[in-house]
Amino acid sequence: MAVYDVLNAPLLEEDSSSYGNSSSFGSSSLSHNENMLLPVEGTYDSMFDGNMGSLRNGVDNTSICKSYFYGQLANVMKSAVWWSMIGVLVNNFTSSYYGLSVTRCAFNFALILGSFVANLIAEVVNIRKLLCVTTMCRLVIWSVLIPVFYSVSQTYSMERPFWVIFVILMVVDGFQVSLSNTVDLDYEGVDRISHQYDIIVPDSLHQHMNNVYQMVFDFSFIFVSVPLALVILLLVHKTGLGEEFILIGVFDLVFFLLSMISLSFYVFGMPVIKSSQYLAYARNLNLSLFSVLSEFCSKLKDNRDGFKIMLMKPHLMRKLLYFSFETAYENSIYLLIIPQLAYNNKWFPNLGTSGINLFCVCLISLSKLGTSIYGIYITNKIKNDSNDNLYRSKPGTIIKCLLFSSFAILLLPVSLMFEDLPYFRWLSLTLLSVSLFLFFMFTTLPKITYSSILQYNISNHPLSYKLFDFVGTFITLVDALVIFGLSFLLKFPGGVITTEKILIYTSVAYILYALIQIVIEVMRPSNL
Length: 528
Known about the structure:
Elements lengths: L43 H8 L3 E2 L2 E2 H34 L4 H26 L2 H29 L3 H23 L7 H9 L5 H36 L4 H27 L6 H8 L5 H23 L2 H30 L9 H29 L13 H20 L9 H19 L1 H16 L4 H27 L8 H25 L5
Antiparallel strand pairs: 1-2
Keywords: Membrane, Transmembrane, Transmembrane helix
C-alpha cells in the first residue's frame, strides 16, 4: 500500500492503531493506511466487471467485491462524520473539560489491547461475520446505548454515573475498532476477501477501490459533515427542541443509517463462505481462552522485542518519534484544540451548541482539505521511479516544511492582534482559517516521508512483524499522551481556559518540537 492514506485514515477514529503484521501501515488517524491516489484506467463499474471472472466456486465474485466496497464506503463516510463532531459530542456527554482526554485514553488503551488479539480473531472468524458483528456493535453503542443512558442521566441528574458508563462504552468501542481495522479496506480487508472467498482481486481493482475509498473519506468532511452541521443549526432555529437533543439525535440517526447501509451490503451481498480451501484452513484454527491469552502474551513479547530492535536503530527511532508526534498533534487539534477554541472563542461569544458544532466542523473540514490537496500533489510528485515503493525527500525540503508549518501555526495567536480594527472578527477568522489550512498542508510531506522510511525499513527487516506491532502500539500511546498533555497545558496557569491560551500554547508547543527536530537533524543527519 502507498503512503498517503496513513495520514487520513479514519483514525482519528481508528487512527494509528493498525500497524499490524503486514508490510504496510494500517489505519487509525485523521490523522487513519497508506494508499496513494493513482490514476486507474476504466470506468467505475467496468473496473469490477472487467477485471474479475463472474463466477468462481459458485459465487458471484463481482457482487461480493461490490458489496464489500459499498459497505466500506458507507463506513468511511460515518468515520468522517464521527471525526468532525466527536469533540463537541464528548464535551456534552461528559460535561467535563477532561472528559475528552480521559475517554480518548480509554479508547486508545482498548485499541492497543484489542490489536494484540485482533488478527487471531480475524483469522478464525470469517470476514462477513466480523464485518457484521463489529458494525452492529458500534451501531448499538452509538445509536442506542449512549443516547439512552444520556437521556436518563439528564432526566434524573445522574451525570457522574453516565460519565463512568460512557468511558466504559469507549473501551468497548475501542476494542470493536481494533477488530474492524483488520477487515477494513484500508488495511487487510481485500486480502481477506481474496483468501476466504477464493477469488482473485487484481491490483488495478484493488487500487481503484483504495482511490475511491480515500476520496470519499476526504470529501465527506466537506460534503457530508458541513451540510449535516447546517441542518442541525437549522433544526434548532425551526423547532423548540433543545440544542443538545438535536445534535445528539441527528448524529445518532446518521450513524444508524450509515451503519445499516453497511450491514445491508454485508448481509445480502456477501454470501456465506463456501471456499473449501478456507473452510479447511479455519477448521485447523482454535479460538479459545487459552489461545487468546497465548496470542496476547506473544504480542506483548513481540512489542518488547520490537522496542529493543528500534533502540538499536536510532535513526529509525527518531523517525518514529517524529511521525508519532506529528500524527498525535494533528489529532489533538481536531479533537481538543478546535472544540475548545469554539467553546471559548472571542469571535462569536454567544454561540449555542449547534453553532459551536458548525464552527468546529468547518475548521476541521478546512484543515482536512489542506492535508488532502497537498497530500495528493506531493505523493505524485515525489514518487520514486525505482519501484521500491519508497518516497524520498531531501532533508532540506523537510526542514523547509517544518519552518513553513511553524510559521503557519504562528498565525494562530497573530490572528488575535487585530482586535481593535473595525473588521477584526472577519480578518481574524480569515487568518485563523489560513493558519490551519497551511499548517495541515505543510505537515503532510514530513509525515509521508517518515511513514515511507519506516515502512520501507521495517518491511525489509527479518523481524518486521515485531517492529510493526511495536510501532502501532507506540503511535497509539503517543496519541493519548499528547492529547492528555495538551489538556493540562491549556489550563496552566490559573486553571482558566482562554482563546489566547489556546492559540499561544498550541503554536509554541509545535514550534518547540519543530526547532528541536531541525537542530537534531542538522547535527545528526540520517539516511535510510
